[in-house]
Design goal:
By secondary structure, the protein is an alpha/beta fold. Strands 1-3-4-5-2 form a 5-stranded mixed β-sheet. A two-stranded parallel sheet has the order 6-7.
Length: 145
């Protein structure tokens, strides 16, 4: 299976550029090189690409082909009682893998975890950064949230 990455910008003349943490991941963790292929997703389209240039800061790709992605036609929302903090990240990841679009934490009478506003806000911001691509990359979905 080819690695999948998500971009926010459309191809410019058949060229896509990936920068930031994804570029580092492609070059250092995956050890990909010029000529290797990967999949880039944007707005319901999968682009099959070939690496044409790779530096420490960015990866340049040439679009080989494009095809529509398959995505469920429903938006699934998960309402869940707030779990212990160590479980929340796993729940978010698995939910996104299964197609959940929105996660709404709910404080219930029997919740063990009752974070204060500041801790909860910091945790929410961290999870929002991680969840957008994490589960979607693993489940071969194209939408990120």
């Amino acid at each position: 299976m080819m690695p999948r990455f998500f971009v926010s910008e459309p191809p410019d003349g058949g060229i896509i550029t990936i920068d930031g943490a994804d570029a580092v991941h492609i070059g250092k963790s995956l050890r990909m090189a010029v000529g290797d292929e990967l999949t880039v997703c944007r707005d319901g389209v999968d682009y099959q690409c070939e690496i044409i240039g790779i530096t420490r800061e960015d990866v340049s790709l040439r679009v080989i082909s494009e095809s529509p992605s398959s995505e469920p036609n429903i938006d699934l929302t998960l309402f869940m009682a707030i779990p212990k903090l160590d479980k929340l990240e796993l729940i978010v990841q698995k939910s996104v893998e299964l197609g959940v679009v929105r996660i709404c934490p709910v404080l219930t009478k029997r919740c063990i975890s009752r974070p204060d506003n500041e801790r909860f806000k910091a945790k929410r911001e961290r999870l929002q950064k991680r969840r957008s691509n994490l589960g979607a990359e693993l489940s071969l979905r194209f939408r990120t949230y």
